Amino acid sequence: MDAPSRRTILTGAAAGLATVAGCAKYGEPKPTPQPAPADTVLGKTEDIPVGGGQIFAPQQVVVTQPVQGTFKAFSSICTHQSCPVASVASGTINCDCHGSKYSIKDGSVVNGPAPRPLPPKQIKISGDAITLT
């Protein structure tokens, strides 16, 4: 019996890899880690700029201060394809994956393709501490 040629082996290997690659899911959202438990101290009020905000990635929360002394919190996971939002600037919470933008005032969609607002999160301000409740 003759040994298989190098071409036969490489062709078989390439076909096997193509089969495995074909099983991968394309375009589906990536699973996101579980959010932090309630009563987690996120930071200090002085760290949240007026007219801006800060993303707390491990807790999946973005905290904003639309006007002096008013703090809002929202999920930091984009409602389009579950990417984490990347920044807070110029009055919006921004997702770099596909360009969605949300209002720092109420989490509403300012620019799609996001289909829904960011869900609100409950926070408590105690002194200068911001706590996720």
UniProtKB/TrEMBL annotation:
Q: Which domain of life is it from?
A: Bacteria
InterPro entries listed in its UniProt record = Rieske_2Fe-2S, Rieske_2Fe-2S_sf, Rieske_Fe-S_prot, Rieske_Fe-S_prot_C, TAT_signal
Task: Relate the protein's function as given in its record.
Answer: Iron-sulfur subunit of the cytochrome bc1 complex, an essential component of the respiratory electron transport chain required for ATP synthesis. The bc1 complex catalyzes the oxidation of menaquinol and the reduction of cytochrome c in the respiratory chain. The bc1 complex operates through a Q-cycle mechanism that couples electron transfer to generation of the proton gradient that drives ATP synthesis.
Q: Which Pfam families match?
A: Rieske
The root-end lineage is:
Bacteria, Bacillati, Actinomycetota, Actinomycetes, Propionibacteriales
Occurrences of domain Rieske (ranges): 40-132
* GTP-binding keyword on record: no
Keywords assigned by UniProt, alphabetized: 2Fe-2S, Disulfide bond, Iron, Iron-sulfur, Metal-binding
Q: What is this protein called?
A: Cytochrome bc1 complex Rieske iron-sulfur subunit
Query: What are the names of the required cofactors?
Result: [2Fe-2S] cluster
